[in-house]
Known about the structure:
mainly alpha; two-stranded antiparallel ribbon; 13 helices; 2 strands; disordered N terminus
Amino acid sequence: MSFFKNRPVQKNYDLLSACSWYTPSVGGLFAVLGWFIVGMILAGIVVLCFNLFLPGFKMSYMMLIMYPVQFIPVFIFVRLKSSQNSMFDRGYALDSNHFGKAGGFGAALLVILGTLSLSFMTELLNSVLPEMDDNLMKAMEAILDGPLWVSIVTTCIFAPVLEEWLCRGIILRGLLNYSHNDGLSRDIDSRGMSPALAIFISALFFAAIHGNYWQGITALLIGSLFGFVYYKTGSLKLTMLMHCSNNLLAVLVTQFGGETVKNAKSMIDIMPKTLYFSIFAIAAVVLALVILYFAKVQAADAHGNCDVIPSAEDMSTALDANQQ
């Protein structure tokens, strides 16, 4: 039978394409969350082992190990589900290249400007939130209490790559493209949910995995921007770059801002209000222009711009047809 033939799929071993055939629905989202919680428990065990056998070992160095560990169970789950689905279900690429007229470089520059603008604007929200819990503050300080390179690796490489893989590449892509036909995605139009709802749910998931509402509220807003860009471009590279830009700014300000920044609740506390709101207005205009640009990027259909990858059965059928 044709579908028993070896599948001519290239690069099925890498982190992105290996997961292309798993598109979780709302129910699948809870399975993904469950396996992520398992990963968090494993990461907690790692911390416990360090505390027992290497007391005094800095939390910042522990993060180099525990941060990737918490994503291992969910990656194994997604990889296995994708492998099972690849025989009969169409896949949707985690990373596509629909950048619009500005091209890849122009789109990259725009998303950096948009992300930094929104990040600056959320300082207004931070200024009205209650003071951060002391225990959480100490935990965050412990994570950043290390060499600059450690903070950059954990917050500007691990976090963007792993969190974007999960929240945009798996969750948002899945909610946009999951099949309504019990996993049989023959009808390419019978899939997914409203893009606005999918973006909101994925941003809410992104906020939830931060584990506290001080970071979560900001993550919800920034995650919504990430989700919108991913919906319009299908590019995980862009959202990883956005995430990296946001976190890198936070790390540099924390590392080099001194005690004034460390003790401030928000940027409003360390700069004249007139200056802050002047920059806020400029940032709002920049953000609006960035959103307007990506809003004009032509989507393949109502489900966004994640490239379709055929199933093994589709490819075998096409191969048989070409041989006849």
